[in-house]
């Protein structure tokens, strides 16, 4: 009988691989969800930075608001997935031009990420890009409890100063959700 070297895994090797995969899967899920939160927070951060710079450059009011499926601003009292201060339905950045709003940037909904804000709309005004209404904040986290074990490391916060400058930090910031 001719015995050749057979390629493949033995039953013991497959069992070891299965055990390692079982323990690694939850950490991959947590890593992926945390990455989604980071990405969404950075998108909001870049939109806030653009809003301020466009208000300065255009010399006109630039407004960031929660949007609906038709890319129109939601009324302050109208709820998204998580209430009237939930930004996870998406947002739009509009510049005032001749009495009309022109869409500059739009971000669609992200249903897996909860984004709580301290208002439903904010405006940046010329000449220096200040925010009407003072300090604002946005709180980013997982809608499910996938990151509960991470505590503050599983959340992100953007604080917006009255001068229009935004700062992204790790942890919750206490925005209404």
TrEMBL record:
Sequence intervals crossing the membrane? 6-31
One of the record's GO cellular component terms: plasma membrane
One Pfam family of this chain: GspH
Tell me where in this chain the General secretion pathway GspH domain is found.
41-162
Subcellular localization: Cell inner membrane
One Gene Ontology BP term is: protein secretion by the type II secretion system
Q: Which SUPFAM superfamilies match?
A: Pili subunits
Q: Which key words are in the record?
A: Cell inner membrane, Cell membrane, Membrane, Methylation, Transmembrane, Transmembrane helix
**Leader peptide range in chain numbering:** none
Principal location: membrane
How does the UniProt record describe the way this protein sits in the membrane?
Single-pass membrane protein
What's this protein's family per the entry?
Belongs to the GSP H family.
Official protein name in the record:
Type II secretion system protein H
| Species per Swiss-Prot/TrEMBL record | Caballeronia udeis
Q: What is the lineage of its organism?
A: Bacteria, Pseudomonadati, Pseudomonadota, Betaproteobacteria, Burkholderiales
């Amino acid at each position: 009988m001719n015995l050749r070297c057979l390629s493949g895994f033995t039953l013991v090797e497959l069992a070891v691989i299965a055990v390692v995969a079982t323990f690694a899967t939850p950490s991959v899920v947590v890593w992926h969800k945390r990455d989604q939160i980071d990405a969404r927070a950075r998108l909001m951060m870049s939109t806030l930075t653009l809003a301020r710079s466009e208000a300065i450059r255009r010399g006109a009011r630039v407004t960031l608001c929660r949007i609906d499926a038709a890319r129109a601003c939601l009324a302050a009292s109208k709820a998204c997935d998580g209430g009237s201060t939930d930004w996870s339905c998406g947002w739009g950045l509009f510049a005032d031009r001749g009495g009309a709003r022109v869409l500059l940037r739009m971000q669609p909904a992200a249903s897996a990420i909860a984004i709580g804000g301290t208002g439903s709309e904010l405006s940046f005004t010329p000449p220096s890009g200040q925010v009407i209404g003072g300090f604002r904040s946005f709180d980013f986290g997982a809608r499910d409890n996938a990151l509960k074990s991470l505590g503050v490391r599983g959340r992100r916060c953007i604080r917006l100063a009255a001068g229009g400058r935004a700062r992204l930090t790790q942890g919750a910031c206490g925005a209404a959700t």
